[in-house]
């Protein structure tokens, strides 16, 4: 790669490799439950977390020593395990969950994706005051849905230090898809650092954990490959704008160990099957800050659920998901062993486990892909990439339409207004508005860039997953799931009313200052978004940053639509790609105050967080 | 020969850096008429920009239906104060047999910070001269802070000076770290100092840092043997290895030159007016 500059293996590379892999028997130390003792014997861990079921559940939150990397640290745990116990509940049940806090500080538990009264939603300062040390809070609610969900702390960085678990609600009418094996595959990440310390380091130097940065020798390699001019052009805009094309994640394996069901890559969590079994894998991204790209080499993945809601089955080879999202996948393994491979989006490491016919079998583990630089499309949207021709044409036609239907003149080229088109159709809200309206607070110190030509297509797998076959990284025909592939099964999207109004908010940030916000306003400066009870409302989110943000709206569904206003899929967490503009409809059925935030924990805590009032 | 390369490279850094200040300032002045697809950064909001509170129905985080009683409980990192100490240069300079420190610390939020900048020379166990600034920094735009405060100069042989300081520090396009400050002292004294740094990543951990610093004075300071106009210029090239992002030893070379009356004072005192020396030091932050 770097002609004439062979790079010797550095000592730090060796130590980093060990760090990525973690301890084979890493995990909770005190009062080691039996499932982990088994793990300590062999190199595989079975059954990730204890299962609790019924209508009454008791959870105890306490500090517990853990060791994932060779260093003992204190974790915050639920019932002493990481992940927390898997709760298997039943649709329609009234459940009572008693949560006792044995920490020296306040805590909370939020039921991610569950519809319930706002007082039960578990966000301190919004739903309730939180759970004080020594206190027991009793959650009571009726399960009005079924599917795969999860639960986690909503206090400080407690989620990052171990407070997350799976929540599975069995449908009253029985499962739509028969499965012989049913496993939760919960992905998370662990840092030995105090999360607040990691956050404050990002505040000082936001690329502190990025060890894939452009270097001088990358440049010389590009010069010899592309020529001087092309090499300069490739960098010009990034450098001028003080943007880093390798800024794919804020954290990396430089501090994180990636976990599958609380098990390190070296520990190799394993799920067993018998040949011919139909295996259901309930993938949950419970990571604090890591997007995962998941595949099982040799197996097709049939996605049957997204965020707990049934979708029309779609068969793919790989999918990306961010913190907060869940996908249920059916596989039909025929061989003895398969690797479940989940590399982090910035490609610094991976979580890994095995599906096998017996314990101890392993399959080859792929290397992480080389990190890919962000493209102009990720910075500028439709104007920056291959979609340019198409979108330019689209914009021209809009401009033309506008000229035909309105009296306005001038500024045509700069105006992407669709007013003209909207006047032409019966309902002006039939389609999401494509007029880009930046907030006035996006012109200050909190925002490092704005996008004026966002992409609106849903079929982009995202940076690092584009054209994998052509680039020789995957076999021919390798298919990566995109949002466009997801369609709720009939009956799921039960409110077919068109939206009565439309809200537009922009996702914003300043990487250099490490600040994240909606519309350039961090949470402390923001006001709530007010929604009316049972109204049908459209929310447009435009991402003015270069990172993908998994946006989680509490208390109501986020029903994704296309840029043509076609309703597609019901989610609770929607990833919005760099320079992308997406929209979804919601009907707030439950009164109260709700949280709405980026589920990258550090982005949320930095201020990409809004309150929603339903009244 | 090697010296010329150092001079050439670092002069280039200064010139490009200075041009970037212009760009950065120009960016702030863009009015609404400049709002077009081409401007993705900076600028000021057009008159019809969206009101970020338009969807609130007048409710706030503490007022309106279903708000939690009492003072607001949920405060995120945007309302927390952070701090940091950066030892940019802590180095031994070979020729002058002295130790130089150049440390910056801050405490505050994303947009408002209390900043301390301290620089000094230690030789033979005594602090020969030092300059310490106590500043209040406020965000000017996405990448720059304005800073306002005082500077206290101390001279072992000479006369201590106090200044009012107003400056600008931040990251210019093309990744130049800039720090430009103007000073007003007593007796109508004025001064200007500018610093520019660039980081060239040879590998993920081996980093070459060109650095330039210059000082100008409004009038002669006989006591401290500083002349008016461009007084001195220092160009340095430092190569560091980041064992961690926060701890990196370095070696380097620094070329300094003096001009005008400052050079004359030095000549009169039998000192060199310019020189090149090797340096070795440590960069750290926490």
From TrEMBL, chain A:
Residue ranges occupied by any Plastocyanin-like domain in the UniProt entry: 62-173, 183-355, 497-614
Classification via Gene3D superfamilies: Cupredoxins - blue copper proteins
CDD domains: CuRO_1_CopA, CuRO_2_CopA, CuRO_3_CopA
GO molecular function per UniProt: copper ion binding; oxidoreductase activity
Coiled coil regions, renumbered to chain: none
One Gene Ontology cellular component annotation held by this UniProt entry: periplasmic space
Record region (Disordered): 443-463
Any single Pfam family the record assigns to this protein: Cu-oxidase
InterPro entries linked to this entry: Cu-oxidase-like_N (IPR011707), Cu-oxidase_2nd (IPR001117), Cu-oxidase_C (IPR011706), Cu-oxidase_fam (IPR045087), Cu-R_CopA (IPR006376), Cu_oxidase_CS (IPR033138), Cu_oxidase_Cu_BS (IPR002355), Cupredoxin (IPR008972)
Protein name (database record): Copper resistance system multicopper oxidase
Originating organism: Spongiibacter pelagi
From TrEMBL, chain B:
GO cellular component, one term: cell outer membrane
GO molecular function: copper ion binding
Region annotation Disordered: where it falls in the sequence: 33-53
GO terms of biological process kind: intracellular copper ion homeostasis
Signal peptide: 1-26
Organism in which the protein naturally occurs: Spongiibacter pelagi
Keyword Signal: yes
Record-given protein name: Copper resistance protein B
């Amino acid at each position: 790669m770097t002609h004439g500059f062979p790079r010797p293996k550095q000592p730090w590379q060796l130590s980093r490799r060990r760090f990525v892999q973690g301890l084979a028997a890493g995990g909770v130390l005190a009062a080691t439950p039996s499932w982990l003792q088994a793990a300590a014997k062999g190199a595989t861990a079975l059954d990730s977390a204890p299962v609790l079921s019924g209508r009454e559940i008791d959870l105890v939150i306490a500090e517990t020593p853990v060791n994932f990397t060779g260093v003992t640290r204190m974790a915050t745990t639920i019932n002493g395990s990481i992940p927390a116990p898997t709760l298997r509940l039943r649709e329609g049940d009234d459940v009572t969950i008693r949560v006792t806090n044995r920490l020296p500080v306040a805590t909370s538990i939020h039921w991610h994706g569950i519809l319930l009264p706002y007082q039960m939603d578990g966000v301190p300062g919004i739903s309730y005051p939180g759970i004080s040390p020594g206190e027991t809070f009793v959650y009571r609610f009726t399960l009005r849905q079924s599917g795969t969900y999860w639960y986690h702390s909503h206090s400080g960085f407690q989620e990052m230090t171990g407070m997350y678990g799976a929540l599975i609600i069995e449908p009253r009418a029985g499962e739509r898809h028969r499965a012989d094996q049913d496993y939760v595959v919960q992905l998370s990440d662990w840092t030995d650092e105090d999360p607040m310390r990691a956050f404050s380091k990002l505040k000082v130097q936001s690329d502190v954990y990025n060890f894939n940065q452009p270097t001088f020798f990358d440049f010389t390699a590009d010069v010899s490959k592309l020529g001087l001019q092309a090499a300069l052009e490739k960098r010009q805009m990034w450098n001028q704008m003080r943007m880093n094309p390798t800024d794919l994640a804020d954290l990396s394996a430089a501090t994180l160990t990636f976990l599958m069901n609380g098990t390190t890559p070296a520990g190799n969590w394993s799920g067993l099957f018998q040949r011919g079994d139909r295996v259901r894998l309930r993938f949950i991204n419970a990571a604090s800050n890591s997007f995962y790209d998941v595949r099982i080499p040799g197996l097709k993945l049939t996605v049957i659920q997204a965020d707990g809601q049934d979708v029309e089955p779609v068969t793919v080879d790989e999918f990306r998901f961010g913190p907060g999202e869940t996908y249920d996948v059916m596989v039909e393994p025929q061989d003895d062993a398969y690797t479940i491979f989940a590399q982090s989006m910035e490609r610094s490491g991976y979580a890994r486990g095995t599906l096998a016919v017996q314990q101890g079998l392993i399959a080859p583990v792929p290397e992480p892909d080389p990190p890919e630089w962000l493209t102009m499309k990720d910075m500028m949207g439709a104007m920056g990439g291959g979609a340019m021709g198409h979108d330019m044409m689209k914009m021209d036609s809009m401009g033309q339409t506008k000229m035909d239907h309105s009296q306005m003149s001038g500024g045509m080229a700069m105006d992407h207004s669709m007013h003209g088109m909207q006047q032409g159709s019966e309902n002006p809200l039939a389609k999401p508005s494509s007029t880009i309206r930046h907030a006035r607070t996006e012109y200050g110190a909190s925002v490092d860039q704005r996008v004026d030509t966002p992409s609106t297509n849903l079929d982009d797998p995202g940076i690092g997953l584009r054209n994998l076959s052509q680039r020789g990284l995957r076999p021919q025909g390798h298919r990566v799931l995109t949002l466009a592939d997801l369609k709720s099964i009939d009956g799921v999207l039960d409110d077919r009313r068109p939206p009565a109004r439309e809200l537009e908010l922009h996702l914003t940030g300043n990487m250099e200052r490490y600040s994240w916000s909606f519309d350039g306003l961090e949470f402390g400066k923001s006001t709530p978004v007010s929604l009316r009870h049972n109204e049908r409302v459209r929310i447009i989110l435009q991402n003015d940053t270069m990172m993908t943000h998994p946006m989680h709206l509490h208390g109501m569904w986020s029903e994704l639509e296309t840029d043509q206003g076609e309703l597609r899929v019901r989610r609770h967490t929607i990833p919005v790609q760099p320079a992308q503009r997406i929209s979804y409809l919601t009907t707030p059925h439950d009164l109260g105050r709700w949280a709405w935030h980026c589920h990258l924990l550090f982005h949320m805590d930095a201020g990409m967080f809004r309150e929603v009032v339903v009244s | 020969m090697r010296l010329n390369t150092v001079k050439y490279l670092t002069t280039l850094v200064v010139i490009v850096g200075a041009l970037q200040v212009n760009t950065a300032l120009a960016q702030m002045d863009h009015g609404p008429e400049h709002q077009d697809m081409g401007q993705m950064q900076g600028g000021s909001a057009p008159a019809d920009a969206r009101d970020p509170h338009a969807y609130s129905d007048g409710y706030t985080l503490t007022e309106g239906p279903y708000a939690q009683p009492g003072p607001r409980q949920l405060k995120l990192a945007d309302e927390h104060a952070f701090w940091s100490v950066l030892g940019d240069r802590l180095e031994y300079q070979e020729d002058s047999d002295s130790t130089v420190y150049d440390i910056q610390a801050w405490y505050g939020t994303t947009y408002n910070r209390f900043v301390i900048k301290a620089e000094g020379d230690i030789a033979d166990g005594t602090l020969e001269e030092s300059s310490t600034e106590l500043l209040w920094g406020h965000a000017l735009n996405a990448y720059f802070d304005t800073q306002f405060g005082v500077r206290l100069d101390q001279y072992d042989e000479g006369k201590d000076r106090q200044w009012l300081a107003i400056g600008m520090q931040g990251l210019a396009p093309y990744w130049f770290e800039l720090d430009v400050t103007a000073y007003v002292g007593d007796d109508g004294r004025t001064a200007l100092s500018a610093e520019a740094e660039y980081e060239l990543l040879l590998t993920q951990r081996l980093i070459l840092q060109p650095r330039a610093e210059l000082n100008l004075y409004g009038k002669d300071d006989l006591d401290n043997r500083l002349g008016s106009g461009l007084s001195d210029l220092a160009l340095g090239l430092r190569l560091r290895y980041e064992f961690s992002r926060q701890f990196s030893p370095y070696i380097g070379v620094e070329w300094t030159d003096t001009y005008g009356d400052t050079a004359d004072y030095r000549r009169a005192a039998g000192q060199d007016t310019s020189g090149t020396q090797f340096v070795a030091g440590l960069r750290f932050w926490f």
